[in-house]
Amino acid sequence: MKLLARLLLLLVVILGLSVAVSLRTFRAFTEEELVAVVRCETAPAGATYGFLVEVTQMRAGEPGRREKFPMVGDQWTIGGDLLKWKPWLTWLGAKPCHKLTRLSSRYLQAERERSLPRTAYDLNGGTSAFWRWLYRWGVLLPFVDAVYGNASHVPVRIGARWGVYVTHSGYFIRSLRERGR
Q: Which partner for 94 in 75, 76, 89, 108 could form a disulfide, CB atoms 3.0-4.6 Å apart?
């Protein structure tokens, strides 16, 4: 009877550890961090641009620098540099390193993209010398899985607000709806 109780206890411990490891793995590879809030505004009458994009960068969940950029086009794009750790480091809790570096405009049709004016702005000083070094040599470092640029874009919607998130694999944009709407 004691042997059966010990085996049952061992089974419960193994099952508990399996569930804990599964939850940690799920969390490590699906975690999202809000890195900016973006809002589109109408251009003032007589402006030579189509709309204004307000970018509020987030630091540790708190609003940081807020900037406004005049833009043209059908969509706005935000992106930056990413360093992805080896999967075992991600499982241990290492988050991807990233830096937002660019806000730009985009047209839906390639022909318009080639023939109409575009706008582009560096964020946070653009891609730094350190990131350029990582692009060239980072993959040779034993803990680095990949170093790459990533961007995401959405159509212009005046008055809309979006959250820009970074995940294990890159940036994405999600609409932020006001509560009660």
A: 89
